Amino acid sequence: MPGDDCREALEQLHTYLDHECGADLEQAIRAHLGDCPPCLDRADFEQQLRAIVARKCKDAAPSGLLDRVIADLKET
Ligand SMILES: [Zn+2]
């Protein structure tokens, strides 16, 4: 059951992974991930997803690719 801290961390996760948030926020999220395994798992998942998409998008990305990748990951 995610608390307020978790909701906030997950809301900022994309900004955090893109390194587009400020240093304060980045530090807060990193601290939260260190304390909170479920959020860390979620961050790992998002990071892997980005790596997979980045790799596949080196070739011309067919439309709907991201949806298929997400569906694949959900099945495993
Ligand atoms: Zn959390």
Any overview of this molecule?
The protein has 76 residues and is mainly alpha-helical. Helix content is 75%, strand content 0%. It has five helices and no strands. The protein has helices at 4-11, 13-17, 23-35, 37-56, 65-75. The longest helix has 20 residues, at 37-56. It is globular. Zinc ion binds at residues 2, 5-6, 9, 32, 36, 38-39.
Q: What's the arrangement of secondary structure elements?
A:
Blueprint: H1 4-11, H2 13-17, H3 23-35, H4 37-56, H5 65-75
The structure holds zinc ion.
Residues 2, 5-6, 9, 32, 36, 38-39 line the site of zinc ion.
Mean of pLDDT: 86
What Rg do the Cα atoms give? 14 Å
Oligomer description: single chain
Class by alpha and beta content: mainly alpha
Number of helices: 5
* Helical amount: over 70%
Annotation, overall tally of beta strands = 0
* Element string (H = helix, E = strand): HHHHH
Report the major sheet.
none
The CA-CA distance between the termini, in Å, is 22 Å
Bound molecules: zinc ion
What spatial form do the alpha-carbon principal axes imply? globular
Percent of residues in beta strands = under 5%
List low-confidence stretches.
none
How many domains, in number, for the residues? 1
Summary tags:
76 residues, mainly alpha, 5 helices, 75% helix, binds zinc ion
How would you sum up this structure in a few lines?
With 76 residues, this protein is an all-alpha fold.
